[in-house]
Amino acid sequence: MTISADHEAQGLADARPDDLEANDQASEVRRKFGISVEDYMLPARHQIQMVDPSGTLKPEAEQGTEPGHEYPIPGDSELMAAYEQLVVGRRVNDQNSALVRQGRMAVYPSSHGQEACQVAAALCLREGDWLFPTYRDAVAVMSRGVDPVETMTIFRGDWHGGYDPTKHKVGIQCTPLTTQLLHAVGVAHAAKLRGEDTVVLAMCGDGATSEGDFHEALNFAAVFHLPVIFFVQNNKYAISVPLSHQSVAPSLAHKAVGYGMAGERVDGNDLVALLAVLDRAVKLAREGSGPLLIEAHTYRMQAHTNADDATRYREDSEVAEWTAKDPISRMTSYLTDRGLLDDDGSTRIAAKAEAVASQLREGLGEDVPVDPQNLFRYVFSTPTSQLKEQSALLADELAREASSQKEAGK
Amino acid sequence: MSPAVTTSSEATERAATGDVSSATASAAASAAAVAEASGPQTVTMAKALNTAMADAMEADSSVLVFGEDVGRLGGVFRITDGLMATFGEQRCFDTPLAESGIVGMAVGMAMNGMRPVIEMQFDAFAYPAFEQIVSHVAKMHNRTKGAVKLPMVIRVPYAGGIGGVEHHCDSSESYYAHTAGLKVYTPATVADGYRMLREAIDSDDPVMFMEPKKLYWSKDQVDLGALRAEHAANASAGSSSEGRAAVARPGTDATLIAYGPSVPTALAAAAAAAEEGRSLEVIDVRSIVPFDDETVCASVRKTGRAVVIAEAHGFASVSSEIVARVQERCFHYLAAPIRRVTGFDVPYPAPKLEHYYLPSVDRILDAVDDLQWEN
């Protein structure tokens, strides 16, 4: 089934009444997205929010949904698994920030406050699917099953990456903004050509939507009708520059319609709504909907990195406002009220988070010996004669340095 | 969806077991038709490049060709002519008009089992893709300690001499050669067009394949069937001419070091010099990265004199690098400083001015005359 603005989809808006199958498809699309092609491509008028900041489930009529935008509440076991990752994710963020203060890591762009987005982005995917994260998405990478210490190697300083992207189907934590969205498009394209049902979720931030590769990636994905979910965490700032300086679109999700794909916006601090929206997006993409754009409204609670001073560009009152919308406290209240979370459960989850934190402390506290010959080993599959020459030069220099130190030591 | 498209390892297995799908078989039949005419024939570099892609696509269903206008049109230079018709729209296709998108998507495809061969329509049109090339194509293997290989070829029609308008004649090879992690090849002969493009497609590392557009329609007597057999023999023996320079014309008095579009100019200069009784050896660099110090330096040690010729601006360029490398390795063999004949350090000129800019036979001979023959 096709839901992008290609020729098939245009036919859906006025399906022939005598064609039962086409009719079924059209009503299926209407049920899922609204009443017309243009309608289902536009996001709902408001962000989808299912659980409010106090942790109370909102009445369906107030969830921001409209016909075609209704979402079922995810199952209990999914909610509990996600909650566990949420608590672990917060602990990971705070532990990593502490390790930076202690000088164990050069830098850490924390996703503190955005953990619900991080967790949902990883958990909505199947094992064979791919995730393409940015530098701020370490918690999403870990939630996908990558070893925490391997995830953090990029910030430890001994190599530019620590995990094998092909093993976990998680792209590198990409630093140049939105360049990874095109890699996501390519992975999905290759899978489609082989007839595989892989879904790819590609992450970026609000500032990144200004980059040219954002446009190229969305357009390529739409033109080739690929199962890619573009997941924008709108945390309101690109380092210091607010969203109003990046875009005056009604919302970032509205950008979807220009590419002929559907968009949706969701409360990025409401884990329930995030899972509901992303689960459906993954399902639709796998069924052949083409790409989708999801914008999550969240907030970067801390500075861009430890090197940044957020007080220079935003008010404390704004931060306080978002503290009240914290994704963890609302989920804790909601699950407790529903009787899914009790003291035992909380204790067990806290212990798990503590175990991951101690794993990080150990792994990043360790002085990993670096091998200078690694400089030359991985530039090409087989080192060129130029690199062999330079590797020998450095080895020789180091050997002479070592022997002169030995001499001096005598 | 075409079940015929597989990963390269699967394709190798299939080829080994003789299990070839019908789509691939028909492609093979059409490629075989090209090969039928055995023995040397008049072949253009364009045809050699086209045949190299067709043969690679036939041999391995993970080889894909895409870019702007490469499908139905066959490319603005017709280098991909017939590939869509032969291999289908899944294997050779047009993309939206966005170079960063083409390269970035190729990165993802290469990560996921494909061997993309992509075309940048003109040298200067590749610049929007520069970030993808420098930040990802060149670095992915290194940052993942070899876990992710990017077996992709970025074909760039480059350099001038065709009377092209602005942005159509840049010699951009130095940007890529300066970037660690990219191989940079540039063929100068029809046979090398075939040979080197096959090697580039076989490479597990990304290759910037710089095609001298003024040589697209150069002709030579070439036996494509023999080249195909040579490639197959090299592949099974694990040997090739990859990364090697070639002696394009042997000589004894001085060495002209050239690559790509400058090789025919250097050969013409050597022919003219021969009439004046001077024997010039011409080295065709072929592979800028990796660079064949051995072949180049062997020639300079023999002749004791050298001129480096390149169309690109001389400042901070491939030609500067060659001069530096040769003098570091051959200083005591040199009878004179190494000279360069390059494009001037100006933006590539308009068509009516380009002949002043390009290295010419006269400029090369003048440089040769300056090699302190009295010493």
Describe the structure.
The complex is a heterodimer of chains A (410) and B (375). By secondary structure, chain A is an alpha/beta fold. Chain A is 48% helix and 8% strand. Chain A has 16 helices and seven strands. In chain A, strands 1-2-3-7-6 form a five-stranded parallel beta sheet, sandwiched between helices. In chain A, strand 6, helix 11 and strand 7 form a beta-alpha-beta unit. Chain A starts with 6 loop residues before the first helix and ends with a helix. The N terminus of chain A is likely disordered. With 375 residues, chain B is an alpha/beta fold. Chain B has 15 helices and 14 strands. In chain B, the strands form three sheets. A seven-stranded mixed beta sheet of chain B has the order 3-2-4-5-7-6-12, sandwiched between helices. In chain B, strands 9-11-10-13-14 form a five-stranded mixed beta sheet, sandwiched between helices. In chain B, helix 3 runs parallel beside helix 9. Chain B starts with 7 loop residues before the first helix and ends in a 6-residue tail after the last helix. The N terminus of chain B is likely disordered. Classes of the chains: A alpha/beta (410), B alpha/beta (375). Chains A and B meet through helix 8, helix 9 and helix 10 of A and helix 5, helix 6 and helix 7 of B.
